[in-house]
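Fold Annotation — chain and its backbone

Fields — amino acid sequence, structure tokens

___
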Amino acid sequence: MFESLTQRLNGALDRLKRRGALSESDVAEAMREIRVALLEADVALPVVRTFISKVRERAVGQEVIRSVTPGQMVVKIVQDQLVELLGGTHQEVKVGGPPGVVLMTGLQGSGKTTTSAKLAKRFRDRERRKVLLASLDVQRPAAQRQLEVLAEQVGVTGLPIIMGQKPTQIATRAMETARREGYDVVILDTAGRLHVDDELMAELAEVRDLVHPHETLLVADSLTGQDAVNVAREFSERIGVTGIVLTRMDGDARGGAALSMREVTGAAIKLCGTGEKMDALETFHPERMASRILDMGDVLSLVEQAAAVVDREEAAKVARKMEKGRFDLADMRMQLSQVTKMGGLGGMMGMLPGVGKIRQQMAEAKFDERIVMRQCAIIDSMTPQERRNPQVIHASRRKRIAAGSGTTVQDVNKLLKQHRQMQDMMKKMKKAGGVKQFLQRNMPPGMMPG
């Protein structure tokens, strides 16, 4: 997300960083470019005006003009202002109770039902809460059944369906069930429309007044740009939104909605959907998102993501084998699997600082992200003996593996060559006395990681 905005902002700020001294005209020119970049990214015009005004006010001050590195100071000001625009500090979804009530609102197609299930899984896995999911959507065919299936998929309880009930009746039954059976959290998935209308708002207000939710979350599709901002304003003014969940954050190259909605509604962006899987729901961190936008990376999120998906025992076992210079194809398969779980190479690179230009070069070179999946398929098509001892894979076996994985013999050869190269490097590390000593001898001065 934010790819085009990142490129435009970095272009304007890089020119400032290259200059030893800054004049007011330099800052004014950079502000014009930043203004255009924000508008092209679908940031609301009033938000852009406020943002540029605040940055300009600080950027033309004597503290910046007389600074030893004025360009860097302006970058810091832009980053600080982005953090403020996005909400300052992150806010979690908080519920009281029991039962704590979360009311999910938004337009049809914004991802409310899927997000409701993701949130239920998050409560269950992270906070060990007993969750009840209930669909109040009596407008869309099979909506209640869809939520029931998702509830089963994420391992929480779905409220039994009684056809013909009104949303308020379903909400009342959900609350009675939660109190009677000791549920910690009730998530109510409300109906949406293709547009904001009085009937929708009246229905939501009636349910809100009945259940008194601890959180009223607006689920908005970040792909809808300016329209999402208008929707957020309507829901905020007429229903009262306590937080925003932005969906499809992994698919939008502009992302102006994220930069506008906090400012327009006053409600914090609390969560963001980053994929289709049920665990692809992340806490929204304004400071980390600002760093991503300015191509400064998000190493903290990368570390947290790694800690969540990496099997520590398996990783330690592979590390010990690597130290001894032994690294078979089964170990390689495990590492490829971890890369996939962390969002692929593209997802990982998006969190590393200064990789915007590299990512662009990868796109121009038509780097195929699916290569990791193909490599996993190739290894999966091998026998246990072949994974442990790749030397036994002769020509006929390579043909069988290629046919079984839906790839070519050339693909199999490339994988085996890559594994040999990795094995050779492990052996060099062993001879050097370990990973740290190997890196100290082979990396340029000053590049040794801490």
